[in-house]
């Protein structure tokens, strides 16, 4: 009973505190009068007293760690207790923070002027460098702080003229006084009533809980949809089994009466029985009349299935994003590696889909709006998400040009750029950044490239050449581009040929490029490679040769109407076909499988298409006896699969 009365008194005290804060004087008077009348105790507000006490302890600990030179304790307290809006926006606070970092950096030199503790000083210099590269980077533009950016590179700051003020006896007392003044203002307790503070805390907590529940709801909906699909399939299988069972019972009865069952009939029954569980081609090719075949397959179909894949633990993405921006370089590298591993090492299917959805919905790179994405569209939204980060493309292209030629990082950057080149906006930016010229120079020395670099460079080059701006860029140095592409046709890595052919087909749309190709006898070169026994490749060459020998199209003059704009501007009539609008539209004509690639692709997707095409039309390609070609430069290199596996494993 005593606890209830104490709680009630505390609650009434908070109500009175809030009414006084909002200046409800008459209401406070009536409230006091009624509480006395009912014999209710009203506790005095304790919030401000407790907050004042806590503030004094924090201020004392900050000053104590300042005097002791304990930078770890100091900046931990500083980060936890100084409001972010003060640290990040107030220039005085930023200036003071810089001086504090300087103080803690040179503290070992001031404590033992005669014998410097070099190891401790080096450790503090490392922390100071980290600060200069992160929060302190903005102060590099100010004249006052610019000299201190040289501090990590001066062997003995105590005798350097630029830092003599730091070692004066008056410097630390002055800095400590500034710190005390700042803390007295920054740590000044808020007068917010406890009731309002509880309400705000409650709302924030509820928002976090609701967000978590929404994520759980999405996951539950996904699971429900999966179970509904499984149930529908089970229902259909059950109905099919009832029919098949009835037929088998009839057959058994007929056998008892002396009638024979033909093997063809048994085969047809078993085909129907297993058609829902296996691919049609496998079912058709299985001989169910062989004793034991059908029974073994039936037993295998009801064998225990693997348990559901466990979900990975959820993460605190707000803390993750903060450390990815403000954390030390090594921590940021480890976090990026861990996030990559979580995605690439997760089990394909539900587990990986959940990880990817979490990255997107929590806006891991703080760029794209939160959006629930279906599993079929994860890859698409990943590219969309990354393409919304303007600085990303610039950073990638800079890394591509500056990284060492054989480094794994460079290969990964190239793969990322090739994936992004499926987006039109990214293509435009890459062309403007003269990535086409860089790729031509890179592909010129193809024998020095790994299969991974060669394949993704060729695919990226083709994607950029599909754009009109990209074609015009190639036309500026048509002879060099054509020389590189025709050399690549003779390369021992035949997986690059679809991209080389696609690039040739695209740039030959430009009349000046066609003329240059004729002068270089490109047709004769293609005829030479057409001797190889590869029908798909030969048909692509025929398309390119046909384009090479085509007459120039009628080109409109400047400001002259042409095409659809000519028809709709000068000859627009009444919409006479409205009555037929509901007719089923004719599908758009798809490019022939024999034509060179005419849309952006990525090596993995194109490889899947080619594999299916080869298996359906020709079976597996014959061995290397059909790979005869004119002698070209060649060099030993790892296989494409090994190279890709090596490049991905090195970084992730």
Automatic annotation (TrEMBL):
Keywords: Cell projection, Cilium biogenesis/degradation, Cytoplasm, Cytoskeleton
Ranges for region Disordered: 581-652
Location relative to the cell: Cytoplasm, Cytoskeleton, Cilium basal body; Cytoplasm, Cytoskeleton, Microtubule organizing center, Centrosome, Centriole
Residue ranges annotated for the ARMC9 CTLH-like domain, each copy included: 57-188
Gene Ontology process terms (BP): cilium assembly
Biased composition (Polar residues): 601-613, 629-642
Main location: cytoplasm
Family annotation (Pfam families): ARMC9_ARM, ARMC9_LisH, CTLH_Armc9
LisH domain boundaries: 430-549
GO cellular component term of the entry, any: centriole
The protein's name: LisH domain-containing protein ARMC9
Protein species of origin: Sparus aurata
Gene: ARMC9
């Amino acid at each position: 009973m005593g606890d209830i009365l104490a709680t009630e008194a505390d609650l009434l005290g908070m109500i009175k505190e809030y009414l006084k804060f909002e200046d409800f004087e008459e209401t406070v008077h009536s409230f006091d009068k009624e509480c006395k009348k009912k014999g209710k105790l009203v506790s005095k507000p304790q919030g401000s007293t407790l907050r004042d006490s806590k503030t004094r302890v924090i201020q004392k600990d900050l000053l104590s760690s300042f005097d002791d030179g304990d930078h770890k304790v100091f900046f931990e307290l500083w980060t936890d207790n100084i409001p972010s809006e003060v640290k990040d926006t107030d220039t005085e606070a930023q200036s003071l923070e810089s001086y504090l970092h300087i103080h803690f950096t040179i503290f070992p030199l001031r404590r033992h002027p005669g014998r410097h503790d070099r190891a401790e000083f080096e450790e503090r210099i490392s922390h100071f460098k980290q600060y200069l590269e992160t929060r302190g980077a903005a102060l590099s533009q100010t004249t006052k702080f610019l000299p201190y950016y040289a501090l990590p590179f001066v062997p003995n700051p105590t005798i350097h003229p630029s830092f003599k003020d730091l070692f004066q006896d008056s410097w630390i007392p002055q800095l400590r006084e500034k710190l005390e003044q700042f803390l007295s203002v920054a740590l000044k307790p808020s007068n917010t009533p406890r009731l309002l503070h509880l309400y705000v805390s409650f709302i924030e907590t509820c928002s976090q809980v609701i967000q978590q529940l929404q994520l759980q709801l999405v996951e539950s909906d996904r699971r429900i949809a999966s179970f509904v699909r499984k149930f529908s399939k089970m229902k259909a299988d059950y109905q099919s089994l009832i029919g098949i069972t009835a037929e088998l019972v009839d057959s058994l009865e007929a056998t008892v009466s002396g009638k024979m069952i033909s093997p063809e009939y048994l085969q047809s029954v078993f085909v129907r029985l297993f058609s829902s569980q296996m691919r049609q081609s496998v079912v058709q090719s299985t001989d169910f009349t062989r004793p034991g075949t059908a029974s073994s397959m039936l037993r295998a179909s009801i064998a225990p299935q693997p348990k559901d894949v466990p979900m990975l633990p959820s993460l605190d993405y707000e803390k993750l994003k903060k450390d990815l921006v403000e954390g030390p370089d090594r921590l940021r590298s480890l976090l990026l590696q861990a996030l990559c591993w979580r995605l690439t090492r997760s089990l394909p299917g539900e587990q990986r889909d959940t990880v990817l959805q979490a990255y997107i919905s929590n806006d891991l790179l703080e760029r794209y709006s939160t959006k629930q994405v279906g599993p079929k569209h994860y890859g698409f939204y990943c590219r969309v998400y990354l393409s919304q980060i303007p600085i990303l493309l610039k950073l990638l292209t800079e890394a591509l040009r500056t990284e060492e030629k054989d480094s794994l990082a460079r290969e990964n950057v190239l793969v990322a750029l090739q994936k992004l080149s499926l987006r039109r906006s990214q293509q435009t930016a890459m062309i403007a950044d003269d990535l086409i010229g860089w790729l031509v120079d890179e592909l010129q020395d193809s024998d020095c490239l790994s299969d991974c670099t060669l394949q993704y460079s060729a695919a990226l080059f083709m994607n950029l050449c599909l754009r009109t701006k990209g074609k015009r860029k190639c036309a500026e140095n048509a002879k060099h581009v054509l020389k590189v592409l025709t050399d690549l046709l003779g390369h021992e890595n035949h997986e690059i040929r679809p991209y080389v052919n696609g690039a040739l087909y695209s740039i030959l749309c430009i009349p000046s490029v066609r003329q240059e190709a004729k002068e270089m006898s490109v047709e004769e070169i293609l005829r030479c490679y057409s001797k190889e026994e590869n029908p798909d490749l030969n048909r692509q060459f025929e398309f390119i040769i046909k384009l090479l020998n085509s007459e120039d199209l009628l080109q409109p003059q400047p400001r002259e109407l042409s095409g659809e704009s000519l028809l709709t501007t000068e000859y627009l009539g009444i919409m006479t076909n409205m009555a037929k609008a509901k007719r089923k539209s004719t599908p758009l004509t798809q490019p022939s499988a024999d034509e060179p690639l005419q849309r952006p692709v990525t090596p993995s997707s194109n490889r899947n298409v080619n594999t299916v095409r080869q298996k359906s039309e020709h079976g597996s390609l014959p061995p290397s006896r059909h790979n005869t070609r004119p002698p070209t430069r060649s060099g030993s290199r790892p296989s494409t699969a090994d190279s890709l596996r090596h490049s991905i494993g090195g970084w992730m």
